[in-house]
Amino acid sequence: MAKLDIIVAGNPVLRLKAKEVERIDKKTVRLLNDMAETMYAADGVGLAAPQVGVSRRIVVIDVGEGLIELINPVITKREGSVVGGEGCLSVPNFEGEVERAEYIECEFFDRKGKRMKLASDGILAIAVQHELDHLDGILFIDKATVLTPKETVPVGIE
Ligand SMILES: [Zn+2]
């Protein structure tokens, strides 16, 4: 596995509509492994392939309930609405409040090419919606009703 570089807002790849994965092969599996390693190393709860410069519909998520890998995910049901705080590894200097569906259902393929279904609410539902937005070139700052600069810790010069 290898840790990948996370690109930040301003990089045009983040604004592309990512392409579907047509064939799940060794490259796809390697990318999934590398994305998970990158997400954990960055203390993130989710990472979409465009965030590592790969414009493909692939997402990894772990909100503390175990790793979930989504290939070609599609949200098939949305219910309710909830406003919660969000941040993004590709927008390191801001956090914001975003309105999302409270409950969602999502269909996707796993790394073995098996069609799967996920029903979620709470932080997992928010993470899925946030990461799937990345696949359509949408960042949370586009949707945030409140945007706050993050306090940055000054780095000491030695
Ligand atoms: Zn993000």
Descriptive overview:
With 158 residues, the protein is an alpha+beta fold. The chain has a single domain, classed as Alpha-Beta Complex (Peptide Deformylase). It is built from three helices and eight strands; from the N terminus they run H-E-E-E-E-E-E-E-H-H-E. The chain has a five-stranded antiparallel sheet. Strands 4-5-8 form a three-stranded antiparallel sheet. Strand 6 and strand 7 form a beta hairpin.
- Over all CA atoms, what is the radius of gyration? 15 Å
The largest sheet, given as strand count, sense and whether it forms a barrel, is: 5 strands, antiparallel
Find the CATH superfamily.
Peptide deformylase
Number of strands: 8
Mean pLDDT: 95
**Helix-strand pattern:** HEEEEEEEHHE
CATH architecture: Alpha-Beta Complex
Shape: globular
Strand order, main sheet: write it out: 1-2-3-6-7
Binding site for Fe cation: 88, 130, 134
Active site: 131
Protein name: Peptide deformylase
Function: Removes the formyl group from the N-terminal Met of newly synthesized proteins. Requires at least a dipeptide for an efficient rate of reaction. N-terminal L-methionine is a prerequisite for activity but the enzyme has broad specificity at other positions.
